C-alpha cells in the first residue's frame, strides 16, 4: 500500500467548550469522531500523530499521542506540536471534529506540495469564499520557526503563517475542491449540539474507512 509523503497530525485538544461535553467521542456515522478521523487517515498515512492539550489516557490507539509543547496556544499550539513530533518533513493537519473529510481531496492537497519543479511549497491550504481552512492543510517543518515566533508574540491566528514572505504558499481554490467534494461538507466542523444534529442527519452511508472511494 502506498501512503502519502506526510505525517498526519490530528488535532484532538479535548476542551470542547461550545459543545459542553467531550466531542471527540461523540458518534457520527456509527463511530466516535476521533475514531472516525483516525480510520480515514489510516487509509492515507503511515505516520499519524494525535495532539491533545494536556497528557491523558482516554485515547486508546496504536498511534502516537502527544500533548502541547506550549500550553494554552489553541490550534496554533497544536500545529506547532504536531509538526515538532512529525517523522516526515510535511504534516497534514486535520481537526478531529471534521467527520466528512474526503480521502481523495486530502490526497490532492498533500500531492500539491511537490507541484513546483524547483522547490516544494511550505503551506498548501484550501481557500474558500468563507476563508482559509488551516485545520485541513499541509505545513512544512520549515514553518516551525515562524509558528514559534507567532506563539512568542501571542498571535494565535494560524493563517498569519501565509503572510511571511519566506513561506511559499499554494492555495487550493473552490473549483479544485468541488471535483472531490461536490457536497461541500469536507470542511464542516462539529462545534455545537446543533452541528452534531446536522452531522448525524446528513450521514454518508456510502463511505467506509475500509472501502474504496
Number of DSSP strand runs: 10
Radius of gyration: 16 Å
The H-and-E topology, N to C, reads as EEEHEEHEHEEEHEHH
CATH topology: Spore Coat Polysaccharide Biosynthesis Protein SpsA, Chain A
Give the overall pLDDT as a whole number. 87
CATH superfamily: Spore Coat Polysaccharide Biosynthesis Protein SpsA, Chain A
**Coarse structural class:** alpha/beta
CATH architecture: Alpha-Beta Complex
- CATH class, anyone? Alpha Beta
What is the makeup of the main sheet? 8 strands, mixed
Proportion of residues in β-strands: 15-25%
Structure, briefly:
By secondary structure, the protein is an alpha/beta fold.
Verbal overview:
This protein is of the alpha/beta class. The protein has a single domain, classed as Spore Coat Polysaccharide Biosynthesis Protein SpsA, Chain A. 25% of the residues lie in helices and 20% in strands. It is built from 6 helices and 10 strands. It has helices at residues 33-42, 74-85, 103-111, 144-152, 174-178, 193-201; strands at 7-11, 27-28, 31-32, 48-52, 64-67, 90-95, 123-128, 131-132, 136-140, 169-173. The strands form 2 sheets. Strands 1, 4, 5, 6, 7, 8, 9 and 10 form an 8-stranded mixed sheet that branches. The protein has a two-stranded antiparallel ribbon with strand order 2-3. α2 (74-85) runs antiparallel to α4. The longest helix has 12 residues, at 74-85. The chain is globular, with a radius of gyration of 16 Å.
Amino acid at each position: 500500500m502506498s501512503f502519502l509523503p506526510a505525517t498526519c497530525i490530528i488535532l484532538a485538544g479535548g476542551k470542547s467548550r461550545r459543545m459542553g461535553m467531550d466531542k471527540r467521542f461523540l458518534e457520527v456515522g456509527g463511530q466516535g469522531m476521533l475514531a472516525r478521523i483516525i480510520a480515514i487517515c489510516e487509509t492515507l498515512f503511515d505516520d499519524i500523530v494525535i495532539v491533545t492539550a494536556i497528557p491523558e489516557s482516554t485515547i486508546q490507539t496504536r498511534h502516537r499521542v502527544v500533548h502541547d509543547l506550549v500550553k494554552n496556544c489553541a490550534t496554533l499550539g497544536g500545529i506547532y506540536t504536531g509538526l515538532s513530533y512529525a517523522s516526515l518533513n510535511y504534516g497534514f493537519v486535520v481537526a478531529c471534529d471534521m467527520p466528512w473529510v474526503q480521502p481523495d481531496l486530502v490526497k490532492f492537497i498533500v500531492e500539491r506540495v511537490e507541484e513546483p519543479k524547483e522547490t516544494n511549497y511550505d503551506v498548501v491550504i484550501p481557500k474558500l469564499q468563507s476563508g482559509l481552512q488551516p485545520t485541513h492543510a499541509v505545513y512544512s517543518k520549515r514553518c516551525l520557526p515562524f509558528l514559534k515566533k507567532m506563539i512568542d508574540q501571542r498571535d494565535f491566528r494560524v493563517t498569519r503563517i501565509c503572510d511571511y514572505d519566506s513561506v511559499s504558499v499554494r492555495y487550493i481554490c473552490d473549483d479544485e475542491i468541488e471535483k472531490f467534494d461536490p457536497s461541500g461538507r469536507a470542511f464542516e466542523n462539529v462545534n455545537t449540539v446543533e452541528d452534531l444534529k446536522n452531522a448525524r442527519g446528513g450521514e454518508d452511508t456510502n463511505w467506509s474507512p475500509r472501502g474504496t472511494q
